[in-house]
Design goal:
Blueprint: H1 7-20, H2 35-45, E1 55-62, E2 65-74, E3 77-88, E4 91-99
Antiparallel strand pairs: 1-2, 2-3, 3-4
Length: about 110
C-alpha cells in the first residue's frame, strides 16, 4: 500500500510539503505536540529545497498512533526522519519529527 494514501500518511505528506513550501505547520500539530517539539521539528525541516519530494519508506500503525519513516534527498545527502502521529477525535495529528527511522517489525 502507498503510505501517503493512508489517512496518517496523507497528513505526514502534507506536513512535509507545507514545511518545504514555507507554510505554517500549526494546522498539522495535535495536543500531543509541545512547543519544544515544534521548534525542534522546524529546525530539522529548515533549508529543504522544493526540488524533490519526501519518500515514505515505511510506517507502523498502532491503536490510535502511527509513525511514518521519511527520506529526503538533498544534493548528495539523504535525510532520514520519523514523523510521529496520533489520532485525535478521528483526525490524524503530528506530535513531532525526529531524526532517524523507527525500526519496523516486518514479521
Amino acid at each position: 500500500m502507498d503510505i501517503s494514501a493512508s489517512p496518517y500518511g496523507y497528513v505526514a505528506h502534507g506536513y512535509m510539503r507545507a514545511a518545504v513550501e514555507g507554510r505554517s505547520l500549526d494546522e498539522f500539530y495535535g495536543a500531543c505536540s509541545s512547543p519544544e517539539s515544534r521548534t525542534r521539528s522546524a529546525t530539522l525541516l529548515s533549508g529543504l529545497g522544493q526540488d524533490s519530494d519526501p519518500v515514505f519508506v515505511g510506517s507502523t500503525l498502532g491503536e490510535g498512533s502511527a509513525v511514518v519513516n521519511v527520506e529526503w534527498v538533498r544534493s548528495s545527502e539523504t535525510l532520514r526522519w520519523s514523523v510521529d502521529l496520533v489520532e485525535e477525535q478521528g483526525i490524524w495529528k503530528v506530535c513531532g519529527l525526529t531524526t532517524g527511522h523507527v525500526e519496523l517489525d516486518v514479521t
